[in-house]
Amino acid sequence: MFEHTKVAEQAILVHLYLSQDSASEDLNELVMLVASAGVQNKAVITASRNSIDAKFFLGSGKAAELAQAVAELQADLIIFNHALSPAQTRNLERLCQCRVIDRTSLILDIFAQRARSYEGKLQVELAQLKHLASRLVRGWDNIERQKGGIGLRGPGETRLETDRRLLRERITVLKLRLSKVSQQREQGRKARQQAEVPVVSLVGYTNAGKSTLFNRLTQADVYAADQLFATLDPTLRQIQLAEFGDLVLADTVGFIRHLPHDLVAAFKSTLQESRDADLQLHVIDCADERLDDNIRQVQLVLEEIDAAEVPQLKVFNKIDQNQQPARIEYNEQLQPVAVWLSARTGEGMELLRQAIRQRLSVDFIRLTLILPPELSVWRSRLHQLCAVQQEQFTEQGEAVLKLALHRTEWARLLKQSDGLLQNYLQAAV
Question: Per the database record, which ranges form the Hflx-type G domain (predicted)?
Answer without folding.
Answer: 198-364
